[in-house]
């Protein structure tokens, strides 16, 4: 990763920053000279990642009361500034038909995927960005633009996050730019059940011929938070290998939807970003 974006010395928070897309984003920002704070639920992974990046970390769920405030306080105390916020942490539960979605799981999905990003932006705004400016990127999903089997809750929350991105962009301009990235199928642990046994089939249907890597998304995020994108706000950047335009290329159905129909996860909370 080049440091030509002029990000040296700035400070960033990356949620869900110990694996997958979040880890790649945190690493790319650190390589560009950014002081990075990561947060995730596993305390050991947070400590390890923070040490690898030469930054700091805070274990916990972004939806826990007080966690956004504690996170902002940590960054301001350790780095003296908070220029960049990447809202990457997410849950893909409840998985299955919406008619089977329980009330508690539905509320938790919105608490993690929609409310937590808002609370984190509020904390960053009040602590630093209102006076000094900054950039926010929310990690959404290509799937928010259409329906799919068994991902109704996830898609609905991410559609809400897209709308939140636009609203915040309008309210916080010109001091703070707020954008989103929407990945297609990326090689993450959370999405392993989709790509592991059908990668060749899925990749063949994409115009660019492969599924995504976390680094593909990370490069887009680094660009969006840099001054190279200083006239961009309220935008959603698709990083999907051409998923949205595959219909012009593939004659058969989308293999990812077949994998989603076949998947029946155990009843547990899975959090991360895909």
Describe what you observe in this structure:
It is a single chain. It contains nine helices and seven strands. The chain has 274 residues and is of the alpha/beta class. The protein has one domain: NAD(P)-binding Rossmann-like Domain (Rossmann fold, 3-Layer(aba) Sandwich), CATH 3.40.50.720. The protein is globular.
List the helices and strands and how they pair.
Layout: E1 11-15, H1 20-31, E2 35-40, H2 43-53, E3 56-59, H3 67-79, E4 84-87, H4 103-132, E5 134-139, H5 152-172, E6 176-183, H6 192-195, H7 199-205, H8 214-225, E7 236-239, H9 255-262
Parallel strand pairs: 1-2, 1-4, 2-3, 4-5, 5-6, 6-7
Helix pairs in contact: 1-8, 3-4, 4-5
Quickly describe the structure:
GO terms for molecular function: 3-oxoacyl-[acyl-carrier-protein] reductase (NADPH) activity. This protein has 274 residues and is α/β, with parallel strands linked by helices.
